[in-house]
């Protein structure tokens, strides 16, 4: 298992976007804070006991997938055809092993499917109905369509359909939220891991896949550099291979985690028109959580320090 040589570091996100204080009700803000804290503490409880970074990120993401507050799992948005197509990925920094699921329906926790793909298949990514069949083979819970129904998501979809728009979670005048959930961790053995899960874009068509399940774009982990989970307009994160680029800037460019993360979010993405943010932890336990939107649902905790939970800039 290896010696306990480091202090753990753990961070999570629940999506970035134009999160306005004026449109956020007091009860909804409290609900987000509580949901983020619950997911954060579930992961840190594993790390406190000397558990693996991989187990911590999976458990934290699983909890967020079970909440209708986030656009992942139960809270996934509607596609143009009124379905829920979900993506998820995870990566282990020590071995560079990874697993990803794309465009899957009915799977309660896509992050558990990503883990099964990593552990039990020779592939990195499986997608569509055959990936769901794979999930059943390993007793991953399958839910009926009704499980994923949420009144707010339904109205959001109807509004998008009426305008024939493809939007990112909440795309109304007051609030734009790029809905994804993710977690990054460094455990006490110095091992890194990253996990990301999403329901994608509201009213998306033709089986659109974003950056979340693409290793190197929305999710990446390497013990020599960092672990990264991204949230935002996925097409830009894919084009600029953001998660892997962050690792490369540390490895070859000799940049600090903060320098590299902020450059990508505030320079590279912003100049290209890409909105969103990322969370990352490096091999030394440093955490960076930059975003170029008005808000990002986020939280982090380092061993021996108080946890932080935030929404606005």
UniProtKB/TrEMBL annotation:
Q: State the organism of origin.
A: Splendidivirga corallicola
Pfam families linked to this entry: Asparaginase_2
Family matches, as PANTHER family: L-ASPARAGINASE, N(4)-(BETA-N-ACETYLGLUCOSAMINYL)-L-ASPARAGINASE
Q: Record's superkingdom? A: Bacteria
Q: What is this protein called?
A: Isoaspartyl peptidase/L-asparaginase
Please give the InterPro entries that the UniProt record associates with this protein.
Answer: Ntn_hydrolases_N, Peptidase_T2
């Amino acid at each position: 298992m290896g010696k306990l040589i480091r202090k753990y570091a753990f961070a999570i996100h629940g999506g970035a976007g134009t999160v306005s204080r004026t449109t956020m009700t007091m009860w909804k803000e409290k609900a987000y804070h509580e949901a983020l804290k619950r997911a954060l503490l579930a992961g840190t409880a594993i790390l406190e006991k000397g558990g693996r970074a991989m187990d911590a990120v999976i458990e934290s993401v699983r909890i967020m997938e079970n909440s209708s507050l986030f656009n992942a799992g139960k809270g996934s948005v509607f596609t143009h055809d009124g379905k829920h197509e979900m993506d998820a990925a995870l990566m282990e920094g020590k071995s560079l092993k990874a697993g990803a699921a794309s465009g899957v329906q009915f799977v309660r926790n896509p992050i558990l499917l990503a883990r099964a793909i990593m552990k039990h298949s020779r592939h990195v990514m499986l997608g569509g109905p055959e990936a769901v069949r794979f999930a059943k083979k390993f007793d991953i819970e399958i839910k009926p369509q009704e499980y994923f129904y949420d009144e707010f998501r339904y109205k959001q979809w109807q509004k998008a359909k009426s305008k024939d728009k493809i939007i990112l979670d909440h795309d109304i005048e007051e609030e734009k939220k790029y809905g994804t959930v993710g977690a990054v961790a460094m455990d006490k053995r110095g091992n890194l891991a990253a996990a990301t899960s999403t329901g994608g874009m509201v009213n998306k068509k033709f089986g659109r896949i974003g950056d979340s399940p693409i290793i190197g774009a929305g999710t990446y982990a390497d013990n020599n550099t960092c672990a990264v989970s991204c949230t935002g307009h996925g097409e830009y994160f894919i084009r600029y291979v953001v998660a892997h680029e962050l690792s490369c800037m540390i490895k070859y460019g000799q940049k600090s985690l903060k320098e590299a993360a902020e450059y990508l979010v505030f320079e590279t993405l912003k100049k290209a028109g890409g909105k969103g943010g990322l969370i990352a932890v490096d091999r030394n336990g440093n955490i960076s959580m930059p975003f170029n939107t008005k808000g990002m649902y986020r939280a982090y905790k380092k061993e021996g320090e108080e946890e932080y939970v935030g929404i606005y800039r």
